[in-house]
């Protein structure tokens, strides 16, 4: 031991001797353990220690401060296991290969189907999966989801999916995620090298040379370090005689060998360059592309699955080192023969594996092994709003079906809201009208000068104007062109030349400076764009094919601009109507504005819809829009809504979809499933009451005691599952906002009014395609707000535009 003085006290530092040629972290921890024992006896902590190792007694100094802390944690864990008489948690690792208990531990792990059976899955990854409620390989196999192929560079990093490996083990199927890319050559050389890593000594080179006609094995043995150069030169001599070849090996041990021997012993530079360029690692063709039903991607595991067997079932790389040590001690040929046989069998196993991969690469028949392409796997799509969802609990299917817009409007709101009842009873019939011919209008009326009101004018000349319009008949709609013949007048007082042209068409919808288009044509085009979600190009084609109008593509854009400006006051009235109402549904979605990201917000109740565009998703738009609102705000769980100081109801459908998705992703998390089942059992009778009696407080009040009991119960629970904990925190955070609807008449527990309105904008967004400007998108939203409001009231957007009325209520009364 070395020593030093500390406060006039002699402190000893530990020194340990090791026979190994290299030292690892575990030996440094052993040194730290010795240091801890010394510090207990001498009442002082050693600062450093020494490890002397190898044949040359190499010495290295090790600082002990951080290592002693690590040893302290290990000691506490061991002490806890001793006190509680519990075995250490089962976790297979790299040390198992040299452990005397490896067979019993492996059997226990196999019985438990433990995740640590999957080599390559790190301890941190296993801990993460455990927190998600996944503890077995079988459970893990259900988590694999086929990803959409991405167009990336050919040099992209290929990822190995352990979940797909687990699926291959569960189904005993080889999964092909990508074709293996193997080099081609006339002669294929299979290489396997044996060595002693600690001594940096390579003592055996094994080759199998397959030229398509003959298969020839070679073995080059070194009795001691001095003969290492001889077997290297023998290997080069064999390779030099082969013309076109590829050198195949498994793993990076052989490639490191070739690199080290080339630097240490050299050889013909052209030959070495050729060997380097034609060396190929078979493992690189498997990794991330081929998934065998084995716990590891090592050669022995895969070859055993393919039906190959070693003469000694215990043969392995570590075992070959032990055999070599026995040979060095006794010089018994039996150990030499065992090693050579094992090396030769490794080459044969590699040859069989390479032939199998060639079959996959060339699409040849490999029916002797069950195979499946990952493209044939069709996982369920993620849960969403506008699609059919598959729920874990059957009761959630019933709850979700009761939240569909049409069902809720015709059964729930019909019983709750008298206006909705009246609207649904209204029978709007679209009449069948007949077509009529076009007409010519002659105007000879004399009018005073529009500038100075002088009545003493004279006729300056004659002119005609054509108004392009559509006319609605009891049989449909047809092109209607009116030709106006009119006089031009000259005012002698102010010298103005004018006509009756400006009075030909009512000005409410026709602000075009040429006054060439009628209001019905403009209304029809805007209706096709907004309500029917047709693009400008499609509308232009319809005008040409159906009516014979050859207008430019942007004509609908000009109509939309004029009409949205005309209905600006109507839009503002809708906002004021919402603020005065008892409830507002709110939601938001993104919008692409010429490459820049913006957001469209929707505010609605059962009769009114309003869309707003803002550049950000910040909550300032909520304060602006909801200024003066005193009702109930219904929303999803976006945190910006929490800043609004009014009564709120969170969408329970969002919540059950989220928890259902978590359960489907973690089907073995019993805590999460139990919590989800309790919430479902709480919600099911409430929804049945709503379905039977509507949204009436006197019927819903009876469920409040069960709601309070549910929250009191989960508040006291502690969950080990991270996902269950998240769900618990979410429930408790929004405790006062999940069941507000029990205290008020006509307040739903879901946000489907806003989602329904968002869906219509999403369809329109697909038509716009990100080409609109900020001003243009707001024009769209003004008209879409009026269109969707009329849709909720079973009224025609087209007829409203044609009427010229700006008050929706007056239009409906008329």
Description:
- The chain has 814 residues and is of the alpha/beta class.
- The protein is built from 30 helices and 22 strands.
- The protein has a five-stranded mixed β-sheet, with helices on both faces. Strands 20-19-18-21-22 form a five-stranded mixed β-sheet.
- A hairpin with a 4-residue loop joins strand 8 and strand 9.
- The longest helix has 29 residues.
Secondary structure elements and their pairing?
Layout: E1 2-6, E2 9-13, E3 15-18, H1 25-42, E4 48-53, E5 58-63, H2 65-84, H3 102-112, H4 123-131, H5 137-141, H6 162-171, E6 174-176, E7 187-196, E8 201-210, E9 215-221, H7 228-240, E10 245-249, H8 253-264, H9 269-277, E11 279-281, H10 282-286, E12 290-291, H11 299-305, H12 317-330, H13 333-361, E13 371-373, H14 394-401, H15 405-416, H16 418-425, E14 439-442, E15 457-473, E16 476-491, E17 497-499, H17 519-530, H18 536-547, H19 555-566, H20 568-580, E18 583-593, E19 596-604, E20 609-614, H21 620-625, E21 632-635, E22 647-650, H22 652-665, H23 670-693, H24 697-700, H25 704-715, H26 722-733, H27 752-768, H28 774-792, H29 797-803, H30 808-813
Parallel strand pairs: 3-4, 6-13, 7-10, 10-11, 14-16, 18-21, 21-22
Antiparallel strand pairs: 1-2, 4-5, 6-12, 7-8, 8-9, 15-16, 16-17, 18-19, 19-20
Helix pairs in contact: 1-2, 11-13, 12-13, 14-23, 15-16, 17-19, 17-29, 19-28, 20-28, 22-23, 23-25, 23-26
Query: Main sheet, how many strands, which sense, barrel?
Result: 5 strands, mixed
Oligomeric assembly: single chain
The portion of residues assigned to helices is 40-55%
- Structure annotation, total helices: 30
> What's the total count of β strands?
22
